[in-house]
């Protein structure tokens, strides 16, 4: 991360960080009313509400009098108002009508009251928040010497991306993937580096597996042959190649999407994925492009989808930032504390982790 961005982040977070746990002193077990098949939105909003650095920023820097000049800024404005209300003492349920209305103004597919996919909504929603806050400058072309080391290429690519896409949302949620393409004929290897907002990981065929098995499938080497053959830069013709991914840069908040639905959404996988639930239990070091033993993450929120593709329901399970107790947020209903050993289920759909 360039030095200018680190400075910017410190400026954003100094005030709320100094408040410590007092900033979160209110119980804030606040539900969200369902206003017509909006459980997908409610589940995601609860998970984002428990993303501590995002909520700190919104509570400290966005008041109800803030002027919104674009559709994205209106979404941010309404989201900040909602977060303020959700974390107000003695507020037990709020209606996210204005947020849905603002979001639907830009994303017309959400203007009706049909059930939607939570992960798709999350991507659109974060993109709108990022666009509202983005102070990046467009137009600069990326030119990198191919003779540089992979790590230097990655750094230059990230710095270029950060100048174009400069916001708190990027600071918190975006990582960098390294894609390696190798020609099976001449052995030539080429690498590219791309930002990612979440990891969509496939599920193995077994009825029960560990999250690591899904991550292994994500980074597993893939053979590109037939119609998928790319053009080798050295052979100057289409060649059979292998392609693999590793993580070059890990985000502060790692979002893992379990690909339970088929591309057409006609079927859903009900595998039980055993994911790490304890503090610092998820170790992502083995998936990194470089040796790094300090890539530990702690789970803090889950978006669950229950039911089938024909009819389903979303809930959120989140960890309170002060009490550290887990609660289920089922629209406007909030459960009492639930034990950690009850978190893993076949309903887990999106996992939210914070880097330790």
TrEMBL record:
Entry's transmembrane regions: none
Reaction catalyzed: Thiol-dependent hydrolysis of ester, thioester, amide, peptide and isopeptide bonds formed by the C-terminal Gly of ubiquitin (a 76-residue protein attached to proteins as an intracellular targeting signal)
The protein's name in its UniProt record: ubiquitinyl hydrolase 1
Domain USP: 30-356
BP GO annotations: protein deubiquitination
Keyword line: Hydrolase
Gene (name only): LOC111593027
MF annotations from Gene Ontology: cysteine-type deubiquitinase activity
EC number: 3.4.19.12
Organism classification: Eukaryota, Metazoa, Ecdysozoa, Arthropoda, Hexapoda
CDD domains attached to this UniProt entry: Peptidase_C19R
